Amino acid sequence: MKSLGQIIDLPKIIDPRGNLTVAQQYTQVPFGIRRVYWTYDVPSGECRGGHAHRHCREFIVAVSGSFDVVLDDGQSKITHHLNHPYQGLLVDTGIWRTLEDFSSGAVCLVLAEDEFDEADYIYDYQQFLAYLKCSK
Question: Which residue intervals define the domain Sugar 3,4-ketoisomerase QdtA cupin in the entry (predicted)?
Answer without folding.
Answer: 6-132
